[in-house]
Amino acid sequence: MNIRYIFCLVALALLAFAACGPASTQPSLSPEDIYATAEVLAKTSIAQTSAAMYTATPSPTETPLPTETTTPAPPTETGTPTETPTSTGEPYLPTALNVTPHGPLGRINLVNETGKDITLVIYSSTYYNEYRFRNGFTIQVPLGDYAFYGYIGENRSFSGTIKISDTIHAWTLYFGKDKVKVITP
């Protein structure tokens, strides 16, 4: 009985010491991981907001009824098919998904010195526009506060905000080899 008593005391002592041991350690996140997570969450939020933006729906129109037609006779001569070109112009012309601006307009000069294609989305609560370009040009937007984001080439992203406050001066979005900056008038 004495051995059982000692064995129980030792087992209880070990159990008590194990309960007082250090807590399990959780791996901590590095500042880079926290920054990357915040950046991804912000870009996801912007993309979801952009996807949910209101788009103007055209008013319904009357569809004309089909008219009776006769079937044309089959051709009697066989011609040689000619090759048609697949591209119809300059591949780097600016393209836009445009929501028509209303009210007084301010100007933004887009200056691209990267030599790469740029995709730019500029939007506010009442305006949304997307541009793809290689050469610089000027756009007009209603006065107000805007957020913008996009890509230089295929893998360098950028984002920021700009406030267009008058119709006389022009703001500049400068895309350089190592930076993107807003230049105010």
Describe it for me?
- The protein has 185 residues and is an alpha+beta fold.
- The chain has a domain at 95-183: Immunoglobulins (Immunoglobulin-like), CATH 2.60.40.10.
- 21% of the residues lie in helices and 30% in strands.
- The strands form two sheets. Strands 1-4-3-6-7 form a five-stranded antiparallel β-sheet, with no helix packed on it. A four-stranded mixed β-sheet has the order 5-2-8-9, with no helix packed on it.
- The protein is elongated.
- The model is unreliable at 78-98 (pLDDT under 50).
In short:
It contains 2 helices and 9 strands. By secondary structure, the chain is an alpha+beta fold.
Attribute tags:
elongated; 2 helices; 30% strand; four-stranded mixed sheet; alpha+beta; five-stranded antiparallel sheet; 185 residues; Immunoglobulin-like
